[in-house]
Specification:
This protein has about 130 residues and is an alpha+beta fold. The protein contains 4 helices and 9 strands. Helix content is about 20%, strand content about 35%. It has a 6-stranded antiparallel beta sheet. Strands 4-6-7 form a 3-stranded antiparallel beta sheet.
């Protein structure tokens, strides 16, 4: 299972890559493997204000539909429009081309409650038991 060391993670299996006040959000390799083949991604509108731990979109797979939860508060500054026609990019490259949104962080305080890579790996192992 790939768990990049430069990211932070949520218990709901979203990742966030922070660069100053900007942050990119996606779902983890673990999440996309559990979901199976992704067939649709519902993206938020540009400018949408995300609230930490609140749903901001949906990922639909051949198995199920799953909400996407914001790892931090912030305003959507970019959405990955490529996912509208190629949702399978989330399966193929969840930490790269399969990113979902970019936000302008409201506060770095939100990041303090997220999981570091080691804690996230432990969480995934517990879920597989």
């Amino acid at each position: 299972m790939e768990v990049p060391k430069d990211l932070l993670y949520t218990l709901e299996h979203e990742w966030i890559r922070v660069d100053g006040k900007s942050a990119v959000i996606g779902i983890t390799q673990f999440a996309q493997e559990q979901l199976g083949d992704i067939v649709f991604v519902e993206l938020p509108e540009m400018g949408t204000q995300l609230e930490k731990e609140s749903p901001f979109g949906v990922v639909e797979s051949v198995k199920t539909v799953s909400d996407l939860y914001a790892p931090a508060n912030g305003k959507v500054t970019k959405v990955n429009k490529e996912l509208e026609t190629n949702p399978e990019m989330v399966n193929i490259d969840p930490f790269g081309a399969g990113w979902i949104v970019e936000i302008e962080l409201s506060s770095e305080e939100d990041l303090k409650t997220l999981l570091d890579p080691d804690a996230y790996i432990e969480q995934c192992e517990k879920e597989l038991e």
